[in-house]
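Hey,

Quick one before I head out. I ran the complex with pyridoxal-5'-phosphate overnight. Inputs first:
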Amino acid sequence: MKISDVKENIVDIYKRMSYAAMRAGREPDSVKLVAVTKKVSSESIKEAINSGLRIFGENYIQEAKAKVNELSNSYENLSWHLTGHLQSNKAKIAVQLFDLIHTLDSIDLARELNKQAERIGKIQRVLVQVNLSKEGTKHGIHEEEISPLLKKISELKNLHLGGLMTMPAFFTDPDKVRPYMRRLRYIRDGFGKKGYSLPELSMGMSGDFEVAIEEGATLVRIGTAIFGERM
Ligand SMILES: *Cc1c(COP(=O)(O)O)cnc(C)c1O
């Protein structure tokens, strides 16, 4: 894939996102595109910025730090999200780099993020990562652990919980992931009835973002379909 393909890919993805939203009776602008840029060069990211993207998802702290330093000087209004797993000992850097952390998955990590956010006077936005499919990523908490974690987060003054994230197993047939997406939304709605406001649902990747949008995703995380296969 050439860097010049990035712009065309983005136009195509926005079109597909809009159609998926309309099929579900949703406003197209109720879904945000997070461009996942792990292992993607700064040159390709600049092409994406020039094509109008502003939200970038990174998976690795060191890699993110280098890119944030390089690109945030040259461009305004970039928003960096952490889409990869976070270890507590990296919480300090994470709160400096990221507007939104998609992968909060333990009470210990919640405490540590809160502590580090408090130190720098920041309210850190987070999503709780839920593991719904045993074949998927090993990260994320199981359904029965969500309630205690949400309760804990609500007590931590420097965290703001925005919603839930999931990353199901990869299936070649995107309709096979639909039950997991639907489940996440159902869980979210359940906590809504208990008084938790969880507007964001981070789900959907290159192979299944349209299904995710039909099922209520507000943040889709797309890498390969924008930038090509990762090296
Ligand atoms: C890599 C990654 C993505 C993007 O996956 P693609 O299939 O390349 O679109 C999305 N979410 C997470 C958590 C990832 O690690």
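The beta strands are 32-36, 55-58, 79-82, 100-104, 124-130, 159-166, 200-202, 219-222.

Talk tomorrow,
K.
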